């Protein structure tokens, strides 16, 4: 019965195998013209066979215990309530932002309408009201576009 080699022993055998090959392939060893009964080739072959017999694939793998965390129902309910509350808060914030943008836009259009009146006189005061209303309307469009962009770019992956 062959006992399995430890990881440390396998690493040492691999290092010996590498060293023996380096010695065999070196120029200085080739110049020695040394041919004993047991050559380096035989040693490399023996170490290679030993490594093949005790390769890590042949060794038994240690059992791994997979532990799954059980979440109590109270924690599940609390998590559900917190997630629902955060979704409602975000939805109400989005709705409020849209209402504010709409209010600013309508106020700007109202300023434009007030400045024209029934008998419109192109005075500096009336022109300033027109430009004030146009500026408010364009700010509302800008805020609305930013709000829509923020909603489109945000998602579950940002957490």
Main sheet properties: none
Q: Count the E strands.
A: 0
Residue stretches low in confidence (pLDDT < 50, at least 5 long) are none
Order of helices and strands: HHHHH
Summed over residues and divided by their number, the pLDDT gives a mean of 76
Describe the structure.
By secondary structure, the protein is an all-alpha fold. It folds into 2 domains: 7-53; 91-158. The chain is built from 5 helices and no strands. Helix 4 (73-116) packs antiparallel against helix 5 (124-153). The longest helix has 44 residues, at 73-116. The mean pLDDT is 76.
Concise summary:
The protein has about 160 residues and is mostly helical.
Write the layout of secondary structure elements.
Layout: H1 7-25, H2 27-32, H3 40-53, H4 73-116, H5 124-153
Helix pairs in contact: 1-3, 4-5
Main traits of this protein?
5 helices; 71% helix; 2 domains; single chain; mainly alpha; 159 residues
């Amino acid at each position: 019965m062959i006992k399995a080699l430890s990881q440390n022993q396998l690493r040492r055998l691999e290092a010996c195998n590498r060293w023996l090959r380096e010695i065999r392939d070196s120029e200085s060893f080739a110049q020695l013209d040394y041919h004993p009964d047991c050559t380096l080739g035989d040693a490399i072959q023996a170490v290679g066979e030993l490594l093949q017999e005790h390769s890590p694939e042949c060794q038994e793998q240690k059992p791994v215990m997979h532990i799954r965390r059980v979440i109590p129902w109270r924690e599940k309910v609390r998590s559900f309530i917190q997630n629902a509350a955060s979704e409602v808060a975000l939805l109400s914030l989005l709705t409020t932002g849209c209402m504010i943008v709409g209010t600013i836009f309508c106020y700007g259009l109202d300023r434009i309408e007030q400045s024209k009146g029934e008998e419109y006189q192109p005075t500096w005061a009336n022109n300033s009201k027109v430009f004030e209303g146009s500026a408010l309307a364009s700010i509302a469009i800008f805020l609305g576009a930013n709000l829509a962009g923020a909603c489109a770019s945000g998602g579950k992956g940002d957490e």
